[in-house]
Design brief:
By secondary structure, the protein is of the alpha/beta class. Helix content is 32%, strand content 19%. It is built from 10 helices and 12 strands. The chain has helices spanning 46-56, 74-91, 105-113, 122-130, 134-137, 146-149, 163-166, 176-179, 202-215, 235-242, and strands at residues 22-24, 30-33, 64-67, 98-102, 115-118, 138-141, 157-161, 169-173, 188-191, 221-223, 245-247, 250-255. A 7-stranded mixed beta sheet has the order 8-4-3-9-10-12-11. The protein has a 3-stranded antiparallel beta sheet with strand order 5-7-6. The longest helix is centred in the N-terminal third of the chain and has 18 residues, at 74-91. The relative contact order is 0.15. It binds S-adenosylmethionine. S-adenosylmethionine is lined by residues 32-36, 40, 68-69, 71, 74-75, 102-104, 107, 175-177, 193-195, 198, 225.
Length: 268
C-alpha cells in the first residue's frame, strides 16, 4: 500500500510514540519501556545533528555510528534518512551500516525482520523530513507479522522497511553495559539514548559513563536523551563526572574535548 505523498499536515502531532510497549519480569515488575519515535524531538534539530556528524567526520574515511538502546529502530532510521538527504547515497556510505543493539530480543527480532510499527501521522512526518520520500523508504502492509503479534505493542499500522533503509543498519541483541566496551574508539558516535534510568543501580550508570570515557577517543561522542536526566537518573552528571563535556550547541551530545559552556552546572 502506498501513502499519498501529498497528504497534509492535518494528522501530524509531535507527541506520538511509534513503539509503545511495557515489559514486565516474571514477578510483574516493570523492566523497561520500548517507547521510541521517529525524529524524536528531544534530540533537537535532526538536520543539525546530521550536519554535526558530517562535519565531525568530514576528513575521515569512516564514521562509526552505534545505537546501544535502539528499540524498534526509529532512531537509527531517522538518522539514516537524514544522512542520505543531506549527503546523498554515495557520500553517506561511510556512515553505514549503523550498528544498532538492544537487550530486548523480541524488539530486535522485529527490527531484524524489517517491520516498524507506526502511528497515524508518521508518514506525514517522514515526508516532511525527506521531501516526500516515505514510499522510497517504507511500504505499509496489510497483515500483522508473527513477530509483531508476539508483542503487546501499540501501533496504527505496520510498515515494512525497504532495503534502501534496512540495508544501512544491522540489529543485534546486546546489553549496552557490555556493548559500550566494544565500540570503535576513533570516529564514533555512540547513541545511548533514553535508557539510562533502566540501569536501576547508580553504580551501573557511573560504570557505564566511565567505560564510555575509557573506550572512546577525543574525536568520538556520546549522545543521550531527555529521559536520561529524569526518572531518578542523571546521565549528564555521570558523563561529566567521567570527564565528558557537553557540546555547546546540543545538550544531548558529550565529547571529551567539547568547548565548555560557562553556565552549565556540571562543569568540573
Ligand atoms: C525508552 S526506549 C529508547 C529507545 C531509543 N533509544 C529512543 O531514544 O527513542 C529504551 C530502550 O532501552 C532498552 N534497554 C534498557 N536497558 C538496556 C540495556 N541495559 N541494554 C540495552 N538496551 C537496554 C529497552 O529495551 C528499550 O528498548
Amino acid at each position: 500500500m502506498n501513502v499519498n505523498n501529498n497528504s497534509h499536515l492535518k494528522y501530524y502531532s509531535p507527541v506520538f510514540t511509534s513503539s509503545g510497549r511495557d515489559v514486565y519480569n516474571a514477578v510483574g515488575q516493570l523492566m523497561h519501556r520500548n517507547d521510541t519515535s521517529l525524529f524524536r524531538s528531544d534530540l533537537g534539530n535532526w538536520d543539525k545533528f546530521a550536519e554535526y556528524i558530517g562535519e565531525k567526520f568530514k576528513n575521515s574515511p569512516k564514521g562509526n555510528i552505534y545505537s546501544l538502546s535502539s528499540s524498534a529502530g526509529d532512531e537509527v532510521y531517522s538518522l539514516i534518512m537524514k544522512l542520505i538527504e543531506k549527503y546523498g547515497e554515495e557520500e553517506s556510505k561511510k556512515f553505514f551500516p549503523i550498528l544498532a543493539s538492544d537487550y530486548d530480543s523480541k524488539i530486535i527480532r522485529m527490527a531484524k525482520e524489517g517491520y516498524l510499527p507506526m502511528f497515524e501521522g508518521d508518514d506525514v512526518l517522514i515526508n516532511k523530513h525527506t521531501k516526500g520520500k516515505f514510499n522510497e523508504y517504507f511500504e505499509i502492509i496489510d497483515n500483522i507479522p508473527e513477530c509483531v503479534k508476539d508483542m503487546d505493542i501499540d501501533f496504527d499500522f505496520i510498515a515494512k522497511v525497504k532495503p534502501k533503509l534496512k540495508n544501512k543498519v544491522t540489529f543485534k541483541t546486546a546489553d549496552a553495559t557490555e556493548e559500550c566496551k566494544l565500540v570503535e574508539p576513533n570516529n564514533s558516535i555512540v547513541m545511548a539514548r533514553n535508557f539510562w534510568p533502566y540501569l536501576k543501580d547508580e553504580n551501573k550508570r557511573i560504570q557505564m559513563a566511565n567505560n564510555l570515557y575509557k573506550q572512546l577517543d577525543k574525536n568520538s561522542a556520546v549522545v543521550i536523551g531527555n529521559f536520561d536526566d529524569t526518572s531518578g537518573s542523571f546521565a549528564s552528571k555521570n558523563l561529566y563526572d567521567a570527564g565528558f563535556i557537553c557540546h555547546p550547541e546540543n545538550y544531548c551530545i558529550y565529547e571529551k574535548n567539547a568547548i565548555p559552556t560557562p553556565n552549565i552546572y556540571y562543569i568540573k
